[in-house]
Each structure stands twice: as C-alpha cells, then as structure tokens.
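ok trying again, last paste got cut off:
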Amino acid sequence: MLKIRTLLISLLACALLAGSAGATQALASHTQITFFEASADLLNARTRPHVIARLQHLGVHALRVELAWHDVAPNAESATKPNFEATNPGLYAWGEYAAVLAEAQRLHWQVLLTVTSPVPRWATANGKAPYVTRPDDRDFQEFMTAVAREFGSEVSVYSIWNEPNHPAFLQPQFNANGTPASGRIYRGLYEAGYAGLQAAGLARPPVLFGETAPFGFDSVKGLLREQKAKALLHDVAPLAFMREALCLNAKYQKAGSCSELQMSGYAHHAYTLPAGPNYVPPERDDVTLGALSRLSRALDLAASAHAIPRGVPIYLTEFGVQSLPNKQLGVPVGKQAEFDAIAEHIAYNNSRVAAFSQYLLKDDPLGGPPGSSVHGGVIGFQTGLEFVSGAAKPLYFGWPIPLTVSKHGHGVSLWGLVRPATGATKLTVLYRARGSKHYRTLKTVRTNSAGYWSLNSSTPGELWRVRWTSPTGVKYEGPPIKAS
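nice, full thing came through this time. structure:
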C-alpha cells in the first residue's frame, strides 16, 4: 500500500457576486486561511531573503513552520538529560526558527507552529536514533512551556506533532501483537504539550490536535507472519489513530475513562494519489481530500461520545500535488496546476475546513519510493511550485491566481481567487476555442473583498486562463486550464 510522508482565525467574509456572462454563482461564506510551508529553504539564512520575496509575490499571508525539538535542545545527542531549567527559553538554541518567526511578525503573517520530532536522545525511551520512540511526556511539557514563552507573541496557533501516525515521526506505531499503539502515546504528548502551553500563561491555548498522515492500517496482525518486525513499521490509519487517541472503540463509543480533550481544531494532511483530488481510498479509515466527509463524521461521532468539543473545525495543514519527475506519485506539471486548484476549491466549498495549505516552494531532490523514510532513507517531495533547480512550474504561475473550470450543463462553471489582492479587484478571464491558437476575453470579473470570484458561462472553449495586474503594476497570468 502506498504511504505518503509527510492564527488564528482570519475572517475572509465572502460576499455574493452579481452580474456575469450567464448567471454568476454565489460564493460560500467561511473563514478559510491558506498556510504556506517553504521548509528548509525558509530556515536557511542564505536563501531566506529570496524565499520571502517569492512568497510575497505569490500572495502568502500565513506560514506553517515545523519546529524539531532535537534541533534546539541542549545536549540533544546525550543519553543523559542535562541539568538545566527546561522551561527557560533562554537555554535553547532557537537559531533560524527565531529568525523566521521574527520575519513573519514583521510582515504581519500568521504562523502555525508545529512542534515535533525528532526529540533529544535523552527524552526518548530507548535512546536510539532516529529519536522518535516514546518521547517523555514530562520533558515535552517543559519544552512546550519554553516554546510558548519564547514565541508566544509570534505564533497564531500551535500544533502538536507532525504525522504522529507515521513511524518516521513517532514509534512504536503498533504493539507487538499488531494492534495500534501510537494513538495513546500521542494522547500523552498532546495532554503534556497543552499543559505546557497553559503553564506559559495561555489559559485556553490555540492548539491543533492530529496532524495525521492520510493512509495506514487499522491492524497489522495479518502481516506479522510474513513481514515479522517490519509489519510494525507501517502507518496507523488516521481514523483508527484518532479513535485510539480519544479512547474510543471502532463504533466511536468510550472504551476507557479518558476525559474530553480540548482543541482548537483537528489538523490533517489530506494528500491524494495521482488519480486526483476527488480520489476516495477503499479503506474506510483512510482520509484523502476526496474523503473529507469521513473525517467530519468521525469528529462528530467523537463529540457525541464527549471525547472532544462539538463542531471542531478541520485544518488541512499540509497538502500538495506531486508532479513528475516523481514516478510513483507524480502527475504531469500541467495537471499538477489543475489538480492543486481543484483541491483548494474542494476545501473552500467545505464549511468545516478552516485552513488549507501548500507544502513546498521548491521540490526536494528525488529520493526513494514511499516508505523509505522509515528505514532512514529520504523520500523527497515534488509538490513544489518550482523544480529542484529553481525553474518555475506551471503551478508557480497558477498558485497566486488559481482557476478551476468544471462542466456545467451546456457550459462551464469557473471559480478562482486572486491571492495577492488585499481587497476587491478585477481580473480578466480568457478562453481559447477548439482549433484556435489565440485566447479571447470572456469577461472582466470583479472579486469579493477576499479575492474570490465565480462565473457560469455558456461560451464554448477548450482552454481557459486568467490575467490580473496588481495595483503596483505586477502582471500575473495563470497557466491554461481544461474543463474537468
């Protein structure tokens, strides 16, 4: 089975658009924000100015930053915990993390800070690399207090752990008998982290639960005979992981005396496969973007069992569409731009979704096949807007002004966003008729105050694209988009 690795609330009031070439659609009103994670390039002092300039051009207003405990802790490679006041932020080497968060604050960008593994060797149960095995809850609580004391004014929302249902980030995932183990480990870390934030003075800390990867197994009992110990290194399916962490059985009924967990939202990485954003995996506890209703239902059932508060929103905190040259999961670069816009439209139309995201500005170097990271290898993600060389993909031009075109009756329905706009603006929608080599203007459209627009058209066409010029004269033109 393929495996994929891996505030606050900004009110984007979406008004109704009136007037169109044909009837204009109503835009849903909700509070979706888009986080951008530029990863290592942003944490590199040499490349950061270039990356920041790129992100400003793209219309970024919010960052996701993953803070690895091991990166900043004192004597992180020691098996013995040093004698230090672990809640004192002055005793950690925050380095480039501090520089990135300070830059985000200067730009008035919101920050989602995901505090995650690897952890200091002295905070693990076995003292062995990759330092992800049963991190000590008490140590993590103290660390989270230090994090909040250091970055409290610069962080909009916290999230605890990256993909805790994936063995590259937390172990063990399964018990020796093949039943899930990581959910209960994660619950302890989450409760400790939450308490650590409270100890720093945040009475009701804005914090996300989950950050789950999209695929996995409910049990690996059937794999033990053939795969032996390797069977225990699979991911736990996200909904099975959620139930375990919330002390619920398969029917979402209380399976223990666990109290209700407080959270500001459930974070999930709804990656999909090359089949596209609407792909629905056959396994009921897997959650891709096309199967978000499974997650919504699971959260509602968990709330009914008094395991979590009612109405917990969904934050899609890591997402991207893989492109070629990734042979296992990649699609052609033109299709990547189409799929990415469709994915954002799906999230936008889901009133439960409070946040969407883009993972990577620039592609990673090619790595091994999915699952390689569990054994110390590198996967490499090709979800970027740029190739690893820095050359722009079609997505680089499409991401600031995403466009979807879907067949609608005898015409098409168009939807889009002008991401760099700071208020209502106008853009030009163009189309190319079948057999023609030239684009013609379909309509000049006015967005709402958040930059969103939609349009129904009966004009026949083969390809569509949009153009926008910023108030300062910067010209944007998206890639050609086909009707889906």
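cool. The radius of gyration is 23 Å. The domain at 33-401 is CATH 3.20.20.80 (TIM Barrel).
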